[in-house]
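Data availability excerpt. The first of two example chains:
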Amino acid sequence: MRKITSPDLMKINNRRRILEIIYTEKNIYRAQIADMTNMSNQTITNLVKELINEGMVEEITLENKALGRNPMALSIRYKQLCSIGVEISVESINAGLYDAAGNEINKLNIIRDINRNVIDVLKEVIGKMIKSAEGLRILGIAISVEGIVDDRNGVVIKSKNLDLDGINILSELEYLDIPVQIKNDVNILAETDYGREQTNNYMLIKLGGGIGAALVLNGNLLRSSNNAAGEFGHVRLYSVSNLKACKCGQYGCLTTEASITAIEEKTGMPVEELARLYQSGDSKARKVIKEIAGYISEPLTNIIAILDLDKVIFTGKLVDLFGDELTCMLEEDINQNLNKWSSFKGIDVLNDYDITARCAHYVVNNFFLKWKDETYD
């Protein structure tokens, strides 16, 4: 929180409004900005000059077939601005540096060593990304974490085998003097899934070593007081006779039957080997996956019915391995049990994404478009 006067606040807001328009409209002229904002031409001229001098904006010449001097259009200086995306998972810590247009500048993947402190590795990879950004302006850093995250305060509430429970990552990285945001891994996917802007109500489910989800209702990510909205892995199964203990302290959670960890414990083999057997037509492997689909669709059908979701989107390693056959089983089970007036239109799959790139783009998008959410003292 910063102390700021009213005239200063007006100037800041005017600058951010101009930046937002240049970012969204692409190659726009000063006169057009004046028409859109009702700012005076002199105000536009002065603020744009500041933004150019700071390296945020550049002038470009557009082809104009009319006679005379071509007016100079304005563009974000994409190659001069950059952001850092980081993924903290059970398997590895990955970081990427991207320019504001989303082009990769540098990438680093470190396989997780359980003997090393996660925060120490995090500081190391971010330090290397910052060094790679020499001469560039870093807009911010976004970090994806597998677990329950208080993204408002930057605290990891509960993480799976990461030893981050109760750690305030924002405080740990305060020395960087760079804006940092901490996000749950599935939430960041939902918040950066810009291609689904026409789908207002959907659930994004990640099937991996654990099971997590994000709910988007009326176009907005569902949030809760305890930051635990979307903990789909901890819904209770009632079709299982022998309820297994879950690490959350309860029994019969979905993750104890349908996560990769549970599947490997049940079958005694890596899930990759199970996928190979499944593809070869092995009846036992096919029975296992059919059961898994049933476990997932049981609570999911109820959620779809209660919230009248348009879509369910699946992602994660389990989906990558078993593909369309798994999602077809799920969709069939759901349709058999939904009422006929449901809005449900089917299942989509989200794959071929890089979560560090998603995080980096989240930073850029928020910088230019979410500036009204900032608070000042």
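And the second chain:
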Amino acid sequence: MCALSEFCFNDCRFTATLVIAVTSMSEKTVYLMRGLPSCGKSFKAKQLATNGGIICETDEYFHTQTGEDPTKYNYRHELQQAACDWNFERFCRAVDEGVTPVIVDRGNSRSLESQRYVRYAVERGYRVELVEPETWWWQEIRVLLKYRRLTRPALYEWAEKLSEMSRETHRVPASTIRDWMDGWKWDLTVDDILNFEPEPEPEPEQAQQEEIASNADAESTAPAPIATDLIEPAEEPLQESPILKPGERSPFL
């Protein structure tokens, strides 16, 4: 007799087949990699793909689709959108074929680009998870990012170090890494990406009127002379506080 916990149908063999099918469907997974350059995202992605998975990496476009040597990274800024579309098409094919897991190894964040990956996967029955590297330096950096109001000096030193580490691969400037650090959301969730809505851009006429009004205010409001001898010295700025240096263990860990 078929147990009620197994969906009691007349044919228990059909029940077993149904349970297996439901389990297989629920196990289809998309992993979105998170992390800064040279922190171990690609290494972790390869670990996740060992059991028949596929890695969809935007940067692969600049290895295989540009230049003559696929072993070299031939980045061209004007082809960035083409690279994004190429990677998304590969991702869609993998999802449509039911491949699991599918690992999206790119800069995933609260953006329309990440959102289209999540929506496509969720609408086709995939579970989506965010995954970060496991290297010791990323474990420190991620804590510094969480408390970056206090740890920005150490973060910026790490930006220089990560840029140096990336010279053999993607050659990411330290200034770009600092920008990513400043905008990093340490507690990002899949729902944040799925529900992301960009701020609407102002209408051209409205933007022009605001600019004219701003310029008029600036011209009509002349700054009063300041008696510099009456100004009290400001507090020491946070960016000069040597709270943590690269390699030092974070007190938050």
